Structure formats: structure tokens, C-alpha cells
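New to this. Help decode the following:
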Amino acid sequence: MAEKKLPRRTARENAYLAAFSLTFHPAPEQADEALAALAESGDAPLDAFGCKLLADMAAHRDEIDALIAAHLKGWTMERVPRASLTALRIALAELLYGEEQKPGVAINEAVELAKKYGAETDYQFVNGLLGTVARERGQAAPETGPSC
């Protein structure tokens, strides 16, 4: 799967597409089949970076989902649209376990994916939740402006 190095944006988007397709295949053997079919199609090739995002997301799924759930206000995980949930999971895998530690990039890319694949205002939700997590972890500068 991880043959050619792709631009980071493409690698993230392809990992997102793979992760999104996995949301329709809850059993591990179905997930493996879905990834194999995606790889064979050549539509969204995965490089080492994309594979690592998927591996980190899968290995830490419970922790990532618990973090998302802890930041939902008046929502449940079941209500979060798949497109947004997938963008959050991919971004949090990169924020928490990625080697590059560029939270602004991970957040921006997740927002762009939510704009492209989600509903009209999903990107605001994705941006807000990821920004909050990054600030709590000391990974992003606090917003400037008056504190009320």
C-alpha cells in the first residue's frame, strides 16, 4: 500500500476516504476487505503517512472517540455526522500520535475535509472541537481578544 510518497494534503484526504469507507464496515475482516478494495481501485492510494494515520486512528480508536465524546455539548456520538466524525478521528490521530506535531495544519486539513465532504456548517463544529482539544493540550495558542 505505501509505495509512493504523496503530498501531505492528498495523503490526508486519501486516509480520510479510507477511514470514511470503514465506517460502513464495523467488523475487522470487512474493514480489511474494504481497504484492500480501495487500494486495488487506485482511486485513493495510501502512502506511509496515510497508512500511519489510519493505523494510529485504529489503534487508539477508543481513546480518540472518548476525547470526542467528552467535548460534545448536548450531542451524542451517534448524532455526529460520519463525515465530521471521520475528519475528527483522522485529525486527532495526527494531533495525538503524529510525529510532525503541527496541530494547526492537522486542524486546517480536517476543516477543509469537512467543507468538502460534510454538510454546509460541519466545518465549524470540526474546527471548534479540534481547536478546544489543541488548546487544552497546549498545542495551540489561545485565541486573542477580550476575555469576558
Remarks:
- The two ends are 50 Å apart (CA to CA).
- The domain at 8-136 is CATH 1.10.940.10 (N-utilizing Substance Protein B Homolog; Chain A).
- Confidence is low (pLDDT under 50) at residues 141-148.
- The chain is about 65% helix and 0% strand.
